[in-house]
Every structure is written in structure tokens, then in C-alpha cells.
Amino acid sequence: MNDLEKKKYPVGKFEYPDKICDITLDEHIVVIRDFPGKLKSLVAGFSESQLDTQYREGGWTVRQVVNHLADSHMNSFIRFKLALTEDNPVIKPYNEAAWAELQDSANMPVKPALKSLKGVHQRWATLLKTMTNKQFERTFHHPEHQKDYSLRVSLALYVWHCHHHFAHIENLKNEKGW
Fold first, then answer.
1. How many CB atoms lie within 10 A of CB 16?
2. CATH assignment of 19-176?
3. Which helix (H) or strand (E) holds 120?
4. Phi and psi at residue 132, in whole multiples of 5°?
5. Where are the domains of the chain?
6. Is this structure's pTM higher than 0.85?
């Protein structure tokens, strides 16, 4: 993996797990529960200039990453609820890069996004804790990928997503000595 790939995928690319046992599910739920607080602590005290720093050349700014996390995780939470209440629903993909360029992502303070993440993750963790194994096997269909995703795999993907973007910011912070 070259340096650009390491900056793009600091925790590696997502690998679809063969099996996710109950212990791993519980660990994933803890990550979802705790992520907003960890992210808030990571960016606490960042100046406007630091928030507007790209985590890598050609990449998003810290501000855009935080806002992307709020957008993405809201979408994921809704996908979980759709899959729990409908039979293999077709989800609505969205253009993440275009969303990151919108003014609410590119220029707003990160505090509203952090508050959104906190609320969504509190609800999401509560929902996850009440789900049965059978419910974790429920699916949604992603039309861009032409694939059905179980909620068990989707949860693993979003745990990776938390670690992936946290590492973008943490690595930048370490690299810059902030």
C-alpha cells in the first residue's frame, strides 16, 4: 500500500466478515454508542483553520469529514429502520462527495453535526441493543451495488466507517502536532 492509499484507508479497506458472532455484535454496539463522544474529544479545541485543513491532499477537510459522518450515519440509521419494518427495501443512495460540498458541510461549525451524531448514535445503540439475531439478518437492497446487505454486515461496515474517519482526523492531528 503506497502513502496515498495509507492516507485514504488508514485502517485498511472494509473487509466483509464471514461471520459475526454475538460477542462481536456487542462490541460493535459499544463502538456505535461511544463514537460521538470520542469524535467530539478528538476535535475539541480545533481552530477554524484546523477544521478547514484537508486530512490529505485532495481529501476533505476535518469539517467536511465531521459533517459527512453525521450525514452518513443518519442515512444508515434510517436504512436500519427501513430494513426492520419493510421486506428487503431498496434504499436511496446519495452522492456523498456532492453533499460534502454543500454549505452546511463545507462551512458550518461542527457543533451541530456533533450534536446530530450524539442523538442518532444514542437512538441507534438503543435500537441495536434490542434487536434479535433474526432481526440482524434482515436486509436492504443497495441499487448501486446491486446487492442485499444484512443489518449484521451493515453494522460491521459502520463500525469500520467510524474507525476509518476517526483515523483520518487523528492521523492529521498527530502529523501536524496539534
1. 8
2. 1.20.120.450
3. helix 111-130
4. -90, 165
5. 19-176
6. yes
